[in-house]
Amino acid sequence: MANHKFDVIVVGAGPAGTACALTAAKAGLDVLLIERGEYPGAKNVMGGVLYRKQLEELVPEFWNEAPVERPIVEQRFWMLGEESLFDMGYKGMEWSQAPYNNFTVLRAKFDQWFAGKAMEAGAILVTETVVKECLVENGKVIGVRTDRPDGDVYADVVVLADGVNSLLGKQLGFHKELKPEEVALAAMEVLDLPAERIEDRFRLEPNQGCTVEIFGDGTKGIVGTAFLYTNKDSINIGVGTTLSGLIKSRMRPYDLLEYVKNHSMIRPYIKDAKPAEYAAHLIPEGGYNSIPKLVGNGVMVCGDAAQLVNGIHREGSNMAMTSGRLAAETICLAKQANDFSENMLDSYRKNLMNSFVGRDLEKYKNATHTFENYPQYFNEYIPFVNRAASEFFTVDGTPKRDKQKKIMSSMFEGRGKWATIQDLYRAWKVMK
Amino acid sequence: MIGEIEDYKGIWVYIEQNDQEIAGVSLELLGAGRRLADKRGVELCGVLLGHEVKSLATTLYEYGADKVYIIDDPILKNYRSETYREGFVKLVNTYKPEIVLYGATSNGKDLASAAATDLETGLTADTTMLDVNDETGLLEASRPAFGGNIMATILCKKQRPQMATVRAKVMKAIEPIKGRTGSIVEEKISMKEEDVRTKVLKVVKEVGKKVKLDEAHIIVAGGKGLKDDKGFALCHQLADVLGATVGASRDAVEAGWIDHHHQIGQTGVTVTPKIYFAIGISGAVQHVAGMQNSEYIIAINIDPNAPIFDVATYGIVGDAFTIVPKLIEQFSKVKQGGELMYG
Amino acid sequence: MHILVCIKQVPDTKIIKVDPKTNTLDRRGIPAILNPYDAHAVEEAVRLKAQYGGKVSVLTMGPPQAVAAIRKCIQIGADAGYMISDRAFAGADTLATSYALTKAIEKISKQEHVDVILTGKMTIDGDTGQVGPGIARRLDIPALTFVRKVEAVNASGNEIVVERKLPDGYEVIQSAMPCLLAVEKEINEVSYSPMPNMIRAANYEPEIWTVDQLNDVDRSKLGLKGSPTVVGKMFSPPKPEGGKQLEGTPDQQVGQLVELLLKEKKELIISKGGA
Ligand SMILES: Cc1cc2nc3c(=O)[nH]c(=O)nc-3n(C[C@H](O)[C@H](O)[C@H](O)COP(=O)(O)OP(=O)(O)OC[C@H]3O[C@@H](n4cnc5c(N)ncnc54)[C@H](O)[C@@H]3O)c2cc1C
Ligand SMILES: Cc1cc2nc3c(=O)[nH]c(=O)nc-3n(C[C@H](O)[C@H](O)[C@H](O)COP(=O)(O)OP(=O)(O)OC[C@H]3O[C@@H](n4cnc5c(N)ncnc54)[C@H](O)[C@@H]3O)c2cc1C
Ligand SMILES: Nc1ncnc2c1ncn2[C@@H]1O[C@H](COP(=O)(O)O)[C@@H](O)[C@H]1O
Predict the structure, then answer these.
(1) Do C195 and A150 touch (CB under 8 A)?
(2) What pLDDT, in 10s, does the model give residues B312-339?
(3) Measured from the CB, is residue B319 less than 6 Å from ligand 2?
């Protein structure tokens, strides 16, 4: 029995692929969504912040049905010293009610629900199936070869949403192998803890969530961040650093995670929590500069496969969804024109670059590299801030004015006035 | 059910025989049935179907039966669902027992399921504990449920007879009482060969393949703790010295170290040897279910908290790879009548 | 040849947990799967179809979400799926289950005569192996249980020859069709489903019937009402209390053990007592 031809085959049922399948199916296209996992989300990991806007564009008022863990009402930023921490953050009740701001999610649950929406819209989901390669016929992608018997399937367009190290993208020569400084390696754990205890420890009401982004000692000075997110009755804790950083410091991500979990400032939050899952996963950090070729004849690339992640703010799923949606919208036009050439499909690339995705990535173009090349941000200023705070808040009879003097001078001890000022300027430039 | 619950009296055991050889489980059930019958103050009866099997009745009396129902007919030579059910259901409807027990063997289960449907009564499968309630007099048949994680007691309140298939090797036969006798009741079967829709073309014994685990006096069983097939070879070596049979946990079988016929436990064979060595076996409920009635259980495990020690007669907390070779050495000395050196 | 396979969706008991205190099952996050034995039954049906031609239908009694199990069967290669789903069926034991399924089978065979019915050896949740033979009795057709091989089918002559597994070997048995086979796992390896089946299964919708859509049903024989057996109590498996730990150095431990065994079981150890 030959497989009938689809309008679109989407490889990968993550945020990007599912968003694409959902949009295309809604528009009445004949969509096949192929996922290698036992079910969508089975093996997928993410720290867990789901951004409202981009999903809302696909599923209005999704929060009434989606398996979100907690709406985030508080976002905290910790500058971690070895035995100290400088805590900043914002908490606002406006975030505790519809339309909310962000949510924590567990991907295993969320991806399943999201794929379900695509199926409701008419997309066909096939799981436990690995796409081995794209079928190419005189310069045009005409379908995919799966690992199953009788496994070739054909379509006008194939969308590669197969994640960060997109083998299919590499096969087509869209990607080169990722360089160590282009990816972060993240290790994370889901720790089970009863809801009440989470709410006590993080000062939350039921159905309110909190995220903590951790800079400094969490990564032992390696460029990267650690995080602590609250789910309904579990906590996600993780740490992500540039691969190059790990290699330099000869650390395995898990060692780093263990270090974070045992850190005196973090331990109390996860005390008695039972490890439920452990995962390690790559995050594209190359940003704008390492975005690969996005379209070819009969083929498009979305999400992590296109390296669409904002490393600084750890946004990815939202960019993935938007890229998937935009790809589908272009495919609809291509279908009308019955033209699936690179030329036609290129409007996806244009739209993507004009969207917040392209703009943000361009804005932060040099951020990771800057931090990568100037480690002092992580291993000097953050310790400094802690020393400063400690100095400032310790009541020992010294007048505050003198304390400030002392702090400023100790700041420059580190790198000297000029270097410091350059650093601050540089940081301001890339972040502004 | 024909008539009233009160009309149903006495406890029956279906006696399984293959070419005039009585299955061990049937004798075990006579033992269990005897206990229940005395508690209820009723008769214990054996039910024997086959061809030229009358002579077996004496054995049944010796093992506790007060009465034996027999249908002896060429049509019953080999077990067949159709013919055996026909005869058995007829007996039940005529003589109305309150409880019927079958061995949970291929044919025992086959017959019981078919009969239960005709009799529209309850049937509990793979029972491992039997009792009758003192007040209600109801049969309490308990069995592992949900992968052996839990036991469930099944009752049959409104229908008669109350029926159960019972696992081999969990009940105990009584010591046969020489010369004990009882009565016999013979019935005919009306079915003719031409009405039968099934034919047994041949019966093949796979002696080679079948491991006589259930008859072994000593079993050396190994588990995942032996790391690999080389480690598992220690079991064979120890077994050789002791003239024992080798058994295994499911994980060892799934690891491919030994054929699945050697698997002991809920989904494997149930065994009751005189001595059972559990080496590198954690003692999961499903495994223990298959060996806990062994007379002596010797556990060798590196983890002092391994549940296997809860069932072990003697436990050695230690590394199998140091302990077992020493055992082999010691026992071979004993065999050669050599001197023992105690550490 | 029309082959009908009875299949059931079950909780994956491999990972099911029981609270030792309350003796209640913790079903949280326990995935529902196609009963493994039934997968082999469907696979066998598909192979018989490939060899002798015909059609494979599957039937289940269960809650609406059991559709997932039917889709799994379509992946394996079944052509059609039927499901009976109704509160009236709830709480059925094997007797009531076989009754309900029989009513559904009668309706199916009215639409298209059924030549062979396959079931698994048993379910991993009910694990009784009683439903199959029950169905056969109610339909008054021969039941062949513990089938480990189908040797030959003579569709025209309405005859089938199978190997039936026995404790110490097997028997070759011939039966008239229609008949019911309850199959062992060893009968086949479930093969990796081809892509066209996967696609077809993805949004396959089986025919779903309620009690009212079945013919001449005696409701007193359904569900809880129709079930003679009731679960009395649940308790955790009895734990024989442990015995003696042998302390000391490995040599001492081994020494003590050998000594003890010789004291208590000498005859066994000396006389090559093993079987
Ligand atoms: C530790 C960590 C924390 C993060 N935190 C956040 C966060 O808080 N917020 C946020 O927005 N983003 C976060 N991200 C980023 C986010 O997870 C990704 O950007 C997002 O998942 C990208 O979606 P995607 O669909 O492109 O890729 P994926 O989610 O990786 O999906 C790819 C899918 O394709 C499937 N697949 C791959 N190859 C094949 C094949 N050959 N055949 C069939 N199927 C295939 C995979 O199984 C997978 O389901 C985080 C990432 C990590 C690793
Ligand atoms: C429905 C169902 C049915 C099942 N049926 C059966 C069945 O019939 N039979 C069966 O056996 N299982 C069965 N199981 C599986 C059972 O639950 C266990 O998984 C299995 O018995 C574990 O096997 P094991 O003890 O060899 O491996 P493990 O549980 O991994 O135990 C290995 C043990 O070896 C010890 N060890 C490790 N290294 C050493 C060393 N160097 N020296 C000494 N000890 C060491 C460890 O401490 C550990 O206790 C069933 C499970 C289910 C769900
Ligand atoms: N609810 C059900 N729906 C369909 N088939 C069933 C159902 N329950 C049991 N069966 C069939 O009967 C066989 C034996 O089941 P059991 O008697 O529960 O061990 C199973 O392998 C199935 O083939």
Answers:
(1) yes
(2) 999 999 999 999 999 999 998 887 764 4
(3) yes
